[in-house]
Amino acid sequence: MQTRQATADDMPGVREVAREAWETAYDFLPEREHEAAMRERYSLDRLERVLADDEDEFVVAVEDGSVVGFAYADPVDPVKRVGDAELRALHVHPDNWDEGVRTALLDHVERVLGDRGYSQLEVLVFADALHEQSFFEEQGFERIENRVADLLAGDTEPVYRYYHEFR
Q: How many domains in the chain?
């Protein structure tokens, strides 16, 4: 397995990983939320805009020529918090969950962000996504906030904000 910068050719694989990961990891969310996420967050147009944004860091994990995971992060408002970035997505195909792919992707993102002068990363995690909470806590992230997030399809869901200094 290799991690590298994402390309436009990776986007269909990224969408497939997103779909499979959401169906498995977020089975507690209503189906309309899954559909809204695929339509709004993971449409090819949206993914290609993220890929084209020089401020965003978009990486994929590839095994045998297929995308098995992806992550992207972008800076938090630099006027508010210099040096902070937010991990917007970190998804791995469920068949590859126990292979260290998430850790490799997170390490890649933090290394590149660190090279750009960032030193802190935050992420929002659904309160019912226990496997994600465990992962981020194992990686040294600290839960710093509990709140309720507005979802794309109009529902709300409790989330936790995690924070990590990586440099």
A: 1
